[in-house]
Amino acid sequence: MRIVLASSEAVPFAKTGGLADVVSALAKALGELGHQVWVIIPHYPQQLPRNLSPAIEPANISFPVPIGTRAADARILWSTLPGSEVTVLHVDQPAYFNRPSLYNEGGRDFPDNCERFCFFSRAVVETCRRMVLRPDVIHANDWQTALIPALLKAEHRKTTGLSNTGAVLTIHNLAFQGRFWHWDMHLTGLDWKYFNWRQMEAYGQLNLMKTGIVFSDMVTTVSPTYAREIQTPEGGCGLNGVLTAHRDSLVGILNGVDPDDWNPATDPHLARNYDAATVAEGKPACKAWLQNHLGLPARADVPMFGLISRMADQKGLDILGQCLDEVLQQDVQMAFLGTGERHYEEMLVAKQRDYPQKVATRIGFNEGLAHQIEAGIDAFLMPSRYEPCGLNQMYSLIYGSVPVVRTVGGLADSVVDTTPETLANRTATGFRFDDYSSEALKRTIFRTLEAYRNRATWTQLMRTGMAQDCSWGRSAKEYVRVYEQAQAKSAARPADG
Question: What's this model's pTM, rounded to 2 decimal places?
Fold first, then answer.
């Protein structure tokens, strides 16, 4: 198939979260399956890593893009995803994208975000037309590209090379919808007739995520459980009715992990590499290195927990904070890495100050240290309030670090709770709890500590987790089936439909 992945970010060019990892890893996996893949992203000069290889080159293509009552020029650059043959097309418009951050500054969204990403969505479609990519499907991701399905259906039903192009939208996090005041409708360039409660309007506002859901041939989310959760009032963020109405086109596909980036057998960041056969020797070496690096006592017998996260309510930092002192009365160590809301950063820094022999907190993000924590800890904490998919619990499984998670979204789909039955049938991979409360989290941590004391049980949990298929190859094949459905639906629709 000929597949275009449109996204507001992709590694290694620009990243604020898991979206960037997912888009690049999926593109590579699709390419390895034999499909022709293009990734189209904005060009963010200030976000590019130093010594980027391969370099970004001019494509000698530029064109005007209508935006409201005027036009802005789009210049196309190109490169490839490192380690692959996937072409990346970068839409260059300095006024929109040459900024120190992608979406906001000082905690406030850029006031022209609607304009920026309406421009980008139109530029994606126009790039496909002018470069004669003839995609079978354009796969949009989150609200920043959710206008693309509407452009395909409302403007390009008779456009050569786009008339049968299927539209797929992936919802990575429904909490972020691209909601703007109604007068921004003119920035989309679409007829005001579409600004109605069935299509682009929600609660009096222009809603780009709703737009993408309504106009797409297929909609995916990043886990099967999250696909069910967002159809409920509790998880639907106001769009549950729309999603329920389109449930026949809604599919949940669990994200995968890129083995080029996350593999303890080859990871260059680790003190010692290991696999499932050598985890009993390799992981203790990584643990000792991590303890020394973080300034904690180098003890092989102490259970060590880790948390690598954006420090926010969504990630369960509130309930963790409520039970942390009681947990730290036990013989444990904890390593925290991340950045986010200041009061959570200060809370974890204070715990290091109060428990210097037990807690190490690092504020910020360090890719190498993230890998070293995953390899060195015994158990990984992920007590999320909600979690569309989550990647760290899968990294933890691969690295033999037993996940402790709340039973939501992708955490429910990827971690099997430890019970007498799941231990007996050798399917247990971690520990789960249901209630969003500090008491439920504390009980689950204590269950984890009890299991840690039984070395046979703990070794079984590690090795069962490491045997799980978390690869993108599995997920990519599911996306191909969705693409085929989307392309078939689009081809069957009349040109004026």
Answer: 0.91
% of residues, the chain, pLDDT over 70: 99
| CA 181 vs CA 56, 111, 294: distances in Å | 36, 11, 48
User: Confidence band (pLDDT; 50, 70, 90) for 152?
Assistant: very high
Q: Is it the case that residue 107 has pLDDT exceeding 80?
A: no
Pick the more confident residue, 471 or 406: 406
For the range 480-484, what are the long-range contacts, defined as Cβ-Cβ under 8 Å and sequence gap of 24 or more?
480/1, 480/30, 480/33, 480/35, 482/168, 482/218, 482/220, 482/251, 482/253, 483/1, 483/3, 483/136, 483/137, 483/139, 483/166, 483/168, 483/218, 484/1
d(CA 67, CA 238) in angstroms, rounded, equals 28
List domains and CATH numbers for the chain: 2-256+473-492 (3.40.50.2000), 279-469 (3.40.50.2000)
pLDDT band at 496 (very low <50, low <70, confident <90, very high): low
